[in-house]
Amino acid sequence: MKRISVLGSTGAIGVQALDVIKMHSMRAVCLAAKSNVDKLAEQAKEFRPEAVCIYDEDKADRLYELLRGEGIEILTGMDGLCKAASLDSTDLVLNGVVGTIGLKPTLAAIEAGKDLALANKEALVSGGELVMDAVKRKGISLYPVDSEHSAIFQCLQGSRREDLRKILLTASGGPFFGRKKQEMKNVSVEAALAHPTWKMGKKITVDSATLMNKGLEFIEAMRLFGVSADEIEIVIHRESVIHSAVEFSDGAVIAQLGVPDMRIPIQYALTYPARLESPSKRLSLWDYGTLSFYKPDFEAFECIKAALKAASLGGTAPAIVSGADEVAVGLFLDGKIGFTDIGELVSGALEAVEVSPIHTADDVISAVEAAAEYVRERYKKGL
Ligand SMILES: NC(=O)c1ccc[n+]([C@@H]2O[C@H](COP(=O)([O-])OP(=O)(O)OC[C@H]3O[C@@H](n4cnc5c(N)ncnc54)[C@H](OP(=O)(O)O)[C@@H]3O)[C@@H](O)[C@H]2O)c1
Asked: In the chain, what are the domains?
């Protein structure tokens, strides 16, 4: 029975991962969340893990109260999260935490020799070189959870790396597809959260609307598959049926298709190489009739342009755009800045914060903090 630690168990990815774990009688040995103690306690009572972690230390007392007499160890803070990622009894860590805060537990899991199912894209974008070096050094398996990267991973099965020519990274285009920058200036938070095809946490949903998500995924693909920026092409595909594709030397293109349901890539990451039954709806191409493809509009969607520039700069540049985006999206969700301000702040941070090489996780965290600080200062000064 595979024993899994689920970091971010109360979020969109975490909840779906627990569905998969339950369906296939795997064991959740540890669950971790940031502040949602009630949901975490409810999950703990159902899944009976050895330990739970609540990151916000001021929520620990409430968790002790809710789990009194249950015999479940309670961990807190970053030390607790790293311990949750490296328990002796864990075979695989599913990291479904949102934000660069997921970097240290990702590295802790790898150092402890745990296999990793990685949804937390910000960790891979910001600290990708550190993560991939550690993966190689420790010889662990890293399974992508993001649907696009899972698709690429699936398309590459049984092929030789030297035969890969190009990755076709698909994107839904989000709710504002086809609009110009000016036409998005006053869009509401509700409109940005109305994703046409996927149901996800708020940060990634806004990132999908600004196309920052695709920029982050572009960098994620470079890290995971060891390709350069000119070996990846972004294709807007409105129906989210083709989750991505790869082109080989002979011109053959292999794509992975399916309904937009994250339980499919989550399950593949947890059960690889097995393909077990899934409750997901089956794909009927007749239901779609037509599939559409477009080029991204880099002028209207400033975030993606900044992310691609960061990809070419390397070093801490991806951490800078990711860190700036995290704070800018939070400000947008709180109604404090406009939608198009996100792109301006992300691009501004990349101009303003010095890019340097990465040697340690602290280099990444400093770059993320500098970018976050830049965004907060700009906001305080009225942008
Ligand atoms: N949702 C998707 O379909 C999808 C698809 C592909 C990739 N991803 C990636 O997967 C990650 C999670 O996305 P999501 O949509 O599941 O986000 P979400 O619904 O907002 O959930 C985030 C989870 O992370 C937890 N968390 C946040 N900060 C934490 C911390 N410091 N310590 C411990 N736990 C912490 C949250 O706990 P609380 O509930 O207590 O706040 C929650 O459980 C993101 O990196 C996203 O880009 C998501």
From this structure: 3-145 (3.40.50.720), 149-262+281-302 (no CATH), 314-383 (1.10.1740.10)
